[in-house]
Amino acid sequence: MTQYTDVDVRPILRAGGEPFSVIMAALKGLEPGHGLRLLATFKPVPLFAVMADKGFSHSEQPLDGGEWEVLFTPVDVAAKEEVSPPPAALSSFDGWPEPTVTLDNRDLDPPEPMVRILAEADKLTPGATLSALLRREPVFLFPQLEKRGFRWLGGFTPDGSTYELTVRAPS
Amino acid sequence: MMGASISRWTMTYFATALAWLFVALALMVAGVGYPAADIASPDTLVLVHAVCIGWLSLAMCGALFQFVPVLVAKPLFSEKCALPALVLLSVGLVLLLAGFLSLGGRLPQAIWLLPLGAVLLVAGFCLVVVDLGLTAWLRPTGPARFVLVGLASLCATFTFGAVFAFGLAGWAGSFGGALLASGIPLHAIAGLGGWLTLTAMGVSYRLLAMFMLAPDVDDRQSRVTLATGASAVAVTVAGGVLAIWLAAESTVVLSIAGLLGLASAALYGRDIVGIFRKRKRRQLELNMRMATLSFVSLAGTAFLGLALVFFDALPAHVGAFAFLAVFGWLSGLVLAKLYKIVAFLTWLETYGPLMGRAPTPRVQDLVAEARATKWFVVYYAAVWVGTLALLAREPAAFRVAAATMTVGAVGIVREVIRTRRLADVACPLRLPPGAVAPYLLFARN
Q1: Is 0.90 topped by the overall pTM?
Q2: How far is CA B427 from each of CA A20, B185, B363, B422, B432, rounded to the nearest angstrom?
Q3: Last residue of a domain, one of A23, A53, A81
Q4: Which of B7, B76, B221, B355 to substitute to test the interface with A, most A CBs within 10 Å?
């Protein structure tokens, strides 16, 4: 079992402070193979990408009063204990629900199409999908989607004028 | 993973390239090399290689490490090659230039520096070619094909260069000696025309379409442009080597290559006009407006070449012709695109993780275009005046033009550094919680 060090940043957040440096300091003090249990007043989504870069996977669960507990587990340990996550891009829409949001981003100045897709994607309920129309393949969007745990499927229409993208939130 | 992430070392390449640009400008201001010295003199060789390898090739490599993955929507074959390649290229270039200085008597006799520098440069370029080539090969459509032909031309260029370096040291045999005696134009055309120009064309197709919301140029159409340009380089390299081997005149070969090159530039002009006409974004950003000045310079280079051939004055004025191609067309385009690329990558690196979750600035908020415009205008005007000064054989006027180019370049680089430091982003949006300020010289990715 992975051992976790508790970091409660709720008092800092309630006081309007910025807990990032405290979390990073706690991370530095971790022993190899140990994880971090974070308690926050909101789901600290931006931190997930940062921690993923540092080699930690995350699993979060809501607490009472809109607060969250997040377990950050070193990835090599997580791989032994859990089944590895499915690949980000799927080969078919099997079992994907109809999109709840449809965006036409074809006439927006770059990088606005990417910004809007990410903003809408973050509002999706678990497992829900959104679809977007774009002028070109959003190559810089894919790494962002992957870091945030989304899956996607996309391709050009036969005439090559529009790229159709469907994004599914992690379930 | 699909898609393109941020290239870690692109900023490092850009910074090194800009440092070499300033070295070259300083040499021109100081009157080292052409036009003060002969065009084939060791001093001119120092200047030419500082510009073509140090400035243009390193900037191009840095841009390609970022944009070849964008062209093919696949990650780079190996991110690990980029930094060792930069070190090999930088050390190799310093040794090569030291070899030229020794050749000209400015340093103690040490001609062996030339082959040693050449070996390191070849090693560095091989790493670049393998890494980018294997990446582009995954999906060789449209612009990626230009990059592949550009990389093949790069191989031809550094092979010639290495033979010359060994030839100057007396280690290249009789055919090496013959190549050295009459092969310099082949080396220059493969480098400037094949590697730098075809690659710049390929990348510009995608960048222009991306930034102006235009449909991509039809694949069949750009393929003709590429085939014409690639033939020009192939005719030059294969025909030129054959002519030297047969001890024949290479004039016919170079004339055919010149016609093909002119046709390729004209077809490229047609493609670019098409992108501008079909664009959805009517208001042009600064990098696009300035890129048009570099297209004007390319057209000017083509017309100047034609006029010089017509008046039988190309050998006498080849310096002015090359200067306009290198500083008007290639350097102008690289500076204009670098201005945009740095802003975009800095924005993506800093605000990408927060996008959609917190208010973030727009890419335009990272730059102050009104302030930057004047530096670009100063730069281009100075390049054009410098070309006229070379044509009029006025070395003093040329040095004044070079000094003015330096002023423009310093202004542009200052703007780029401000962009990287997020200095022009208004305070509440500059670093929202969770955002981390980027490093100046490399990217977190």
Answers
A1: no
A2: 19, 53, 15, 10, 9
A3: A81
A4: B355
